[in-house]
Automatic annotation (TrEMBL):
Segments traversing the membrane: none
SUPFAM superfamilies: P-loop containing nucleoside triphosphate hydrolases
Assembly description: Component of the replication restart primosome.
Function, as annotated: Initiates the restart of stalled replication forks, which reloads the replicative helicase on sites other than the origin of replication. Recognizes and binds to abandoned replication forks and remodels them to uncover a helicase loading site. Promotes assembly of the primosome at these replication forks.
Protein's name according to its UniProt entry: Replication restart protein PriA
Lineage, top ranks: Bacteria, Bacillati, Bacillota, Bacilli, Lactobacillales
Needed cofactors: Zn(2+)
Keyword field: ATP-binding, DNA replication, DNA-binding, Helicase, Hydrolase, Isomerase, Metal-binding, Nucleotide-binding, Primosome, Zinc
Enzyme type, top EC level: isomerase
PANTHER family: PRIMOSOMAL PROTEIN N (PTHR30580:SF0)
Source species: Candidatus Enterococcus myersii
Domain of life per record: Bacteria
Family: Belongs to the helicase family. PriA subfamily.
């Protein structure tokens, strides 16, 4: 019998989107397992690529054409049976290539990197001058010293060849350690033999004699000894140097105070009881924990997790974006201690890999992380939580376009354990499922802190402010209330809504707007770097002093950037200490946390920021929240804009009055009568849900319809448009009359990085023909790709524009 491995190779194309069979060489037979990464030859020549073993089988007769696996890249499987099955599910639901799904599940350091080496084939040829004795040159090296074009010519002539190898990046971090080989008694004997004045040697000997434990080299260097001293010590037989594996601990500098459980209130108690009942029955029940802001959802999560951990099960909690919720991490670490591993994008690749390894080895029982933490290799899961389940960050915008909430539910089914979707403002989709009893609704209707109440909310019509002659960003009402809080030494949070908004530059004489040369969008002003920048392609140029079109110097800056508002605010309230939080002030690692800590320590009065301040802040002295412009997002041509506006207003209002002191919120808007705003004022999610459901029903949008978005792109507009119309005809012919097509239309930003985008949205209820048709469309689009025409499919897109 010959053992074979089925391998998914790292070539993301339709033709290669299936397992390829390889022979397992004798020496690897005992060790190769499903879920391991391997290096395999692929195609012609010396090309080696990475692959994943997805199955192992045997054959009686050997097929001569089969090639053997070159080597193993892992000593243990990196994807277990569950995750391999999850990859299949993801592929089915997102129309992505299997290899893309598999790679997405692992820390990025485990993605293959390829090393190219140029080989000398004919040693007698003129090419030999370029090679050292080994007959090999690194490809990148050749590129750097300019020999590449010449060498490629030799390659065409067949006297030089290229070898492709997989380069494994996932290095474990090690530290150098010292083990003492002398004890006190031995040291006594050595001391007299030391030369006079060998102070360092004596010092080293002293430390070694006193130490039973192994010590890191750092310990010695901190005391003034050098590695030379240690090497000499090793030569003399006093000590042994060795490497030991270590984790990069991003929280090493952090001390977490331990906290104890609150006595749950009735609503919380009920929620925990129902969740644990499902857990005990080994039931994959989906709960929708709909709790107003400050109702103690986190406490419910924590106490439910504790129960699960007691029975040696594990738990996972997803949060929208961990960098934005340091308080959440703090609460988890302080309650659950070292059991918690944290995965998020703010970690370095190495740190992420280490956290992943900890989980994989079973050293962490609780995983807290952003979207991709859903792939954490936890075993024995007893509870899964998706906090702020309505957040758009749970959907990945590039392939595979998965929604972490769906995968959370899939994993809960696999482990037969409950999953909690938590939010103060659930997505319409989830709330509707709770309505239909597909999910179990768990309501939390009052604030958990018995002394806290929901804030009072006031709406200010900005149209009136303008007619009153107030041209600042702050209404008179808000100004008054801010003065009041400053006098009382209480804190203020101000939100500048940036969605659908940006600062651009325009000539007042000719109306010229500075646009990106590569995209159909105006450039955004960045005062910190004094540049105009494109948020889509990264194009950057200096701020012009005169109009590039007419030469006029009358240039105006439109849109209200946070910096501009900050300056305005400081002028209005000169004594106020203001902290600004936006993309510019939080670019550096840890900057976000630092701003929040400063604010938490009451070293500032006002926190002014974009959407990122709306989440997770829990500070007792915030008694005033101001929303400077509630409606910028309402004007976006997206059916979810009301939902998003309502969610944002509710989130940010929820920052006020979370403890004893009563909170107030001022919402400034041009559309006070819009239901998303008036119902946010009423703090009535349920009524918003009812009203929004009526709108969706009328217009035929989710959750009444399923949706798929097809996007076509090409360097020329005509080609993109033509292809999209052809697809529309193809869809129309195959689908039932109940399916509706929106488009084809140019995408909201038609040109990005010099490519044109056209889109079609399909709305449907029950179309068995759709899935095979979409697969066929993808298949056929392979030929178009050679012409630079790309088709992508987004199942249940979160953005329609
Ligand atoms: P949510 O996540 O729903 O916004 P939190 O879990 O942050 O709410 O709770 C809000 C505040 O109430 C927190 O400061 C928390 O410490 C406190 N809290 C939670 N549960 C209780 C309880 N049972 N008794 C008293 N205070 C509580
Ligand atoms: Zn001009
Ligand atoms: Zn651009």
């Amino acid at each position: 019998m010959y053992p074979l491995a089925e391998v998914i190779v790292d070539v993301p194309t339709m033709q290669t989107d299936q397992p390829f069979t390889y022979l397992i060489p004798a020496d690897l037979q005992p060790v190769v397992k499903k879920g391991m990464r391997v290096e395999v030859p692929f195609g012609n020549g010396n090309r080696h690529i990475q692959g994943f073993v997805v199955d192992i089988s045997e054959t009686k007769t050997l097929d001569e054409r089969l090639k053997p696996i070159v080597r193993l890249l892992d000593i243990a499987p990196v994807l277990n049976t569950e995750l391999l099955a999850l990859a299949d599910y993801m592929k089915e639901t997102t129309y992505a290539f299997k290899i893309t799904c598999l790679q997405t599940m692992l820390p990025s350091v485990m993605k293959a990197e390829y090393k190219k080496t140029i080989l000398l084939v004919d040693k007698k040829s003129e090419a030999a001058h370029y090679f050292p004795a080994s007959g090999e040159i690194d490809y990148d090296e050749a590129q750097k010293n300019g020999h590449l074009p010449k060498l490629m010519k030799f390659r065409q002539a067949g006297i030089v060849d290229i070898r492709y190898e997989v380069h494994n990046k996932n290095r474990v971090k090690t530290v150098r350690m010292v083990k003492a080989l002398v004890d006190a008694k031995k040291a006594e004997k050595i001391f007299p033999t030391l030369r006079k004045g060998s102070l360092r040697k004596a010092q080293l000997l002293e430390i070694l004699a006193a130490q039973k434990e192994e010590l890191p080299v750092k310990y010695f260097t901190a005391l003034g000894l050098t590695t030379a001293h240690l090497n000499q010590g090793a030569k003399d037989g006093w000590l042994e140097l060795f490497e030991t594996e270590t984790y990069r601990d991003p929280f090493a500098e952090h001390e977490f105070e331990t906290t104890t459980n609150f006595v749950l209130n009735e609503e919380q108690e009920m929620a925990v009881a129902k969740i644990l009942a499902a857990y005990k029955k080994k039931q994959a029940e989906t709960f929708l924990l709909e709790g107003i802001t400050g109702s103690g959802k986190t406490e419910v999560y924590l106490q439910a997790i504790q129960q699960v951990l007691k029975e040696d099960k594990t738990a996972m909690m997803l949060v929208p974006e961990i960098a934005l919720t340091p308080q959440m991490v703090e609460r988890f670490k302080s309650r659950l201690g070292d059991a918690v591993a944290v995965l998020h994008s703010g970690l370095s690749q190495g740190e992420r890999y280490d956290e992943w390894r900890k989980i994989e080895r079973g050293e962490a029982q609780v995983v807290v992380g952003a979207r991709s933490a859903i792939f954490a290799p936890l075993e024995n899961i007893g509870l899964i939580i998706v906090d702020e389940e309505h957040e758009a960050t749970y959907k990945q915008e590039e392939a595979p376009r998965y929604h972490a909430r769906d995968l959370a539910i899939w994993r809960s089914r696999y482990h037969k354990c409950p999953v909690i979707l938590g939010s103060a403002t659930p997505s319409l989709e989830s709330r509707a499922r709770a309505q239909k009893k597909v999910y179990t609704l768990l309501p939390l209707q009052k604030r958990a802190n018995p002394n806290a109440n929901l804030p009072t909310i006031e709406i200010v019509d900005l149209k009136d402010e303008y007619s009153k002659g107030n041209m600042t960003s702050f209404s008179l009402t808000l100004q008054e209330k801010m003065q009041d809080r400053l006098a009382k030494n209480e804190q203020i949070v101000l939100l500048l809504n940036r969605r659908g908004y940006s600062s651009f530059m325009m000539c007042r004489d000719c109306g010229y707007v500075l646009d990106c040369p590569n995209c159909d969008i105006s450039l955004t002003l960045h005062m910190d770097t004094k540049t105009m920048r494109c948020h889509y392609c990264g194009h950057e140029e200096a701020i012009p002093h005169k109009c590039p079109e007419c030469g006029s110097k009358k240039i105006s800056y439109y849109g209200t950037g946070t910096q501009k508002v900050e300056a305005e605010l400081q002028e209005l309230l000169p004594e106020a200490r203001i902290l600004r939080m936006d993309v510019d002030t939080t670019r550096k690692k840890g900057a976000h946390e630092k701003i929040l800590t400063t604010f938490g320590e009451k070293k500032a009065d006002i926190l002014l920021g974009t959407q990122m301040i709306a989440k997770g802040l829990d500070f007792p002295d915030i008694t005033l929240v101001g929303v400077l412009n509630a409606d910028t997002a309402l004007n976006l041509p997206d059916f979810r804009s009301s939902e998003r506006t309502f969610q944002l207003l509710t989130q940010v209002s929820g920052r006020a009055g979370r403890a004893q002191k009563a909170g107030e919120v001022v919402i400034q808007t041009f559309n006070p009568e819009h239901y998303a705003i008036s119902l946010a004022k009423a703090q009535d999610y349920e009524r918003f849900y009812q009203q929004e459901m009526r709108m969706r029903h009328q217009a035929g949008y989710p959750p009444y319809y399923f949706t798929v978005k097809l996007t076509v792109s090409h360097e020329t507009e005509v080609q993109a448009a033509q292809k999209s119309f052809q697809l529309a005809r193809q869809l129309q012919a195959a689908l039932s009359p109940n399916a509706l097509l929106l488009g084809p239309t140019p995408s909201a930003i038609m040109r990005i990085k010099n490519r044109y985008y056209y889109q079609i949205i399909i709305k449907y209820k029950n179309e068995p023909a759709l899935k095979p048709l979409l697969e066929q469309i993808l298949d056929e689009s392979q030929i178009d790709q050679k012409k630079g025409l790309y088709v992508s499919i987004d199942n249940e897109p979160l953005n329609f524009i």
